[in-house]
Input
Amino acid sequence: RARLGVLVSGSGSNLQALLDACARADYPAEVACVVSNVPTAYALERARRAGVPAMALDSKAAGSRGAFEQSLLETLRAANVEWVCLAGFMRLLSADFLTGFPGRVLNIHPSLLPSFPGLHAQRQALERGVKVAGCTVHFVDAGTDTGPIVAQAAVPVLPDDDEASLSARILAEEHKLFPLAVRLAVTGKVSLEGGRTRVAAPPATEGLC
Ligand code: GAR
Output
């Protein structure tokens, strides 16, 4: 089973979806460790409850981005992590860090990329008046939510939506999409080659757009 390092900053509901998927005998990955850059993140509690090694690396206390990323790399290597999953991890990773896990860093983002990268994606979608929103799992490059796409799921935007209701509808899809995309990636069905996504087999029917 592929060893995942999951990076978090907040509530960790996407981490929970990965932990739940990994608890199934036929899932091809396991969570080897969870690292939060925010010491108070509830995600750390979820990891501990699941019996997964969890630790905080305070990005503010680290002093510099280089120092923070160096300890992050050492922590992930010490846990023999093969794939890195960003599950609500609100820090950009440098190209230097990414070379430590080439083609093996995945991020989930609450919009249909390339629309609405960055912060407050759901608010951006509402302000723009889109009628279809969603979420994306993509390979991470050094840009902000710019990497090649692994999988997406769409939801409608309803006339009386506010940021909270739209976010909740998208989040429910995120919880299905992230485990699906991780499965596709770790089994080599979708991979990063020459800066683009390569699909090795016809897409699975269960929710892959
Ligand atoms: C999720 O909606 C995730 O897509 C988003 O943060 C939330 C984390 O929720 N990530 C980003 O916006 C990254 N650009 P969670 O902590 O409950 O998984």
Notes: The pocket of glycinamide ribonucleotide is lined by residues 10-14, 43, 87-88, 108-110, 121, 145, 171, 174 (CB under 6 Å). The first strand starts at residue 2 and ends at 8.
